Amino acid sequence: MLHVGSVDGLPVTAATDKKNYPIWRTRSLLVIPIAMTREVRYLLAFASTRHDLRWRALQIRHLKLLAGSLAGAMNRKALEVERSDALRFERLVTEASARLAGGAYDTIDEQIKLALDDVRSFTGADQ
């Protein structure tokens, strides 16, 4: 977590930040990492452009809880998308297998082409 109550109070080691924050009109900043499966994927960030703002400990604790809730919701969505994609791919493979197994000898080349086209379309491959 990063909490900058006033950019004027940044140490010399943060000279680049101290120089850039006024360009972005940032006076104060609070950044809370959002971790998904132990990896930081997003940041919940609040900035004040009008005045210095010092966040209270209770506010920060509540915002960390909010960040945890956001992480849980985003993780559930990612898992649902992954599950849905896996199911769609499973259907694609099943349908292609059925076409190939039941295809007449004289149409097997076309059935192979259709199966490969379906896989390319699903994966986004161009060849």
Characterise this structure:
The protein contains 3 helices and 3 strands, in the order E-H-E-E-H-H. It is α+β, with helices and mostly antiparallel strands. The protein has a 3-stranded antiparallel sheet, covered by helices on one side. It is elongated and about 80 Å long. The model has no long low-confidence stretch (mean pLDDT 89).
Q: Strand fraction band?
A: 15-25%
Distance between the termini: 45 Å
Structural class: alpha+beta
* Biggest sheet: strand arrangement: 1-2-3
Over all CA atoms, what is the radius of gyration?
Answer: 26 Å
Helical content stands at 55-70%
Described by strand count, sense and barrel closure, the largest sheet is: 3 strands, antiparallel
Q: Ranges with pLDDT <50 over ≥5 residues?
A: none
Count of separate DSSP helical elements: 3
Summary, kept brief:
This protein has three helices and three strands. The protein has helices at 15-23, 57-102, 108-123, and strands spanning 2-4, 28-36, 39-48.
Notable features of this structure?
single chain, 127 residues, alpha+beta, 3-stranded antiparallel beta sheet
Question: What is the strand and helix layout of this fold?
Answer:
Blueprint (H helix, E strand, L loop, with lengths): L1 E3 L10 H9 L4 E9 L2 E10 L8 H46 L5 H16 L4
Antiparallel strand pairs: 1-2, 2-3
